[in-house]
Amino acid sequence: MTSAFGADEVRPGEIVLEHASRSFSIRADRGRTVKELLIGRSRSTGPPPVEALREVSLRIEPGETVGVVGRNGAGKSSTLRVLAGIVPLHSGRVAVGGQIVTQLELGAGFSRDFSGRENIFLNGALHGLSRAQIESRLDAIIEFSELGDFVEAPVATYSTGMFLRLGFAIAAHLDADVLLIDELLAVGDEAFQRKCEARMAEQIGAGATLVLVSHDPLLIERTCERVIVLDGGEKVFDGSVSEGMPFYHRLMGTEDAVASP
Q1: CB-CB neighbours of 166 under 10 Å
Q2: pTM
């Protein structure tokens, strides 16, 4: 059974998971046929649920920079979605203190019929900003996004890279205690990636906690001081990046490629 911590149990920027477990069904239930109902026969239950997280416990202090790595299906994105409050746990406890700013999916939180400018106001409001507060940051957000006149176009017409630019530009100008970022920087061009990294560094310098999921080892090494390695929904390493990344490469069987010039 899932339970939440009291608001006074965690500080702004602090993250706690205790024995967190979450599974997902991989079989769509199309219901039972009339014949099955009449003769009382049940359809095969199909494959068992996938355990995305299994008894994961961790504590992240305010201001820490933590990378989360692992093979596909290891539970990385599920962990961020649990921390963001998007996905509830089946068992265990979760608490995240303060204002959470997320970049988990391209276009998440956008209305596709709205322009980029209108979506800035929408996202700002969803994060608790007043119209006046959004207007005071509007020019900086638009400039950061590098969208130019496209900020007036419906986001339904945006490319993947444009979605990234607008989403990160908004996130970069919100007051965050906790930043949760999932792999999205890989979508942008190198110059924009570096600009995003510089902005993240400013937010971290101001005291924000960062949890970053990425398959890019160099990004983790540049950005994070601590790394958590997940495998099969379980935490298999939690420690310094200098020790954690070699562990990760051994797990993935890529240590020889990393060692090669």
Answers
A1: 28
A2: 0.85
pLDDT digits (tens, 9 = 90+) for 34-82: 666 666 655 555 677 888 999 999 999 999 999 999 998 899 999 999 9
Beta strands per DSSP E along the chain = 2-4, 15-24, 50-60, 65-69, 91-96, 100-103, 178-182, 209-213, 226-231, 234-240
Residues with Cβ < 8 Å from 5, sequence gap 6 or more? Answer: 16, 93, 94, 95
C-alpha distance from residue 48 to each of 11, 25, 28, 56, 79 (Å): 38, 7, 12, 20, 20
Q: Where are the domains of the chain?
A: 2-99+176-259, 115-175
Q: Three-state SS for 174?
A: coil
Count the Cβ atoms, other than its own, within 10 Å of residue 220.
23
Spatial distance between the Cα atoms of 202 and 194, rounded to a whole number of angstroms: 12
Condensed to tens digits (0 to 9), the pLDDT of residues 192-214 reads 888 888 999 999 999 999 999 99
Structure tokens at 86: 């998007």
Q: Phi and psi at residue 116, in whole multiples of 5°?
A: -60, -45
The full length of the chain comes to 261
Q: Which amino acid is at 252?
A: M
Concatenated DSSP letters of 193-211: HHHHHHHHHHHHHTT-EEE
Q: Which fold has domain 2-99+176-259?
A: Rossmann fold (3.40.50)
